[in-house]
Amino acid sequence: MKKSIKSLGVVSIVALITFSFTTLKEVKKEIIIENSKIAWKGYKVTGSHQGTINLKSGSLTFTDDKLTDGEFTINMATITNTDLEGEYKGKLEGHLKSDDFFGVEKNPTAILIFKKVKSTGKNSYKVIGDLTIKGITNTVTFDLSVYGNKANASLKIDRTKYDVKYGSTSFFDNLKDKAIYDEFDLVADLEF
Q: The whole model's pTM is what?
């Protein structure tokens, strides 16, 4: 009996020492802004428009090589259109920056903060985060993949949840072919 108690005591001490000195390795990796890209695509009854928008800053945090956190700030003043040229390109970009859409003068940044990250397979994660646009925060859920020093995510955003209602049939009647769908897509290709 004494031998069993001594053995149990030794095992307990070894376990305590092992767990005391086992630390998780957490690494915060900054996004390389100039090598990263966010593309957007908005849809309307008569087609779609697309373009890009730049990150101001961003980081992904890994614990023991598993994604555990992330935070991004988007520079809303950099929103551009890539499917139009000349006067129409300038008009659309100006309209997107106006108070009808993202009001970039009053709201120069949008922020995404990860709240929960769950591994869904090798290099794949389900992320729940808080997205703030025009000072309004809503929860978003999206998939994110990590390969080496690169990450990719696709988000579908309901703009009306952020008080971006221009041309929305959810708020205006008789828009006919001038209607703009509420959801738009963001695709982020990131390097860190």
A: 0.86
